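WARN no homologs supplied; continuing
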Amino acid sequence: VSTMVNEGTNDYALNVAVQFDHLEGSGVDGFLQVIDKPSVAGLYSFLDQAEVLNTAFFSGVDQAYEMTVMRVYDRFTTLDTITTATAVCRSSIETAAGTTNKVGGCTVKVAVGSDTGYDKITISATADGFSTSSPFTVYFPSAHSIVLDDEVLNPIQGAKQAGNCGRPLYQKSMIRARATYGGTGLTSTPNIDVTCLSSFSSSREELASVTGRVVTGLSQGSATISFSVGNTDRVGGNTQAAVVVGGAEVNVVTLQTLLPN
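OK structure emitted
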């Protein structure tokens, strides 16, 4: 304390303009600004994906996307941050995409039961006394079909089934699925390959067996190949394909290695 006492050796400046500099700005002419804690001045938001295809229709698995809600502060030196509040979320078209409230934003879900496509759905969120929104577009399959590379599967001359030498080995065929995607305000796009999203089944496994995306003949007769997962009965198109397991033997002309599809 004794060092704070002026005994004539400390000089003081009188009536001299000074400036106080600090992290949040400056006070000019000798006045120090008293600055309050920064406050939230507004929100903005963004999605990790803004345009999606509804694949849940074929796969039977819900799709989830995240919308992040950011705070903007009333002080330029304070960086934007993700809100720590639980956002109250809403979708303008629930039949295309729903929402779930969460801390820091919203989860946007395209569920198995979603049944429409829509351009620029409004996904809104309210938190910290402010609101924000982002557009979200969902393309929905308005029509679909099953196509077989070969609709007739015949026995291969001279070839027998593995483990059963008394039965002929039949041909195989790839099963493929195509869809037309679109929705309200969207241009329809046909012939999108959705084979990898789809699962298939046979009406007569003892005649034509399905493994993954391949149908194999086992015995003479007819069977129907159908989608086995999803909501494929909800829209138009050929949801089934007929396959005939014939009796006319075919010869192997060439052998070709096929990559998995």
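The longest strand covers residues 130-148.
OK
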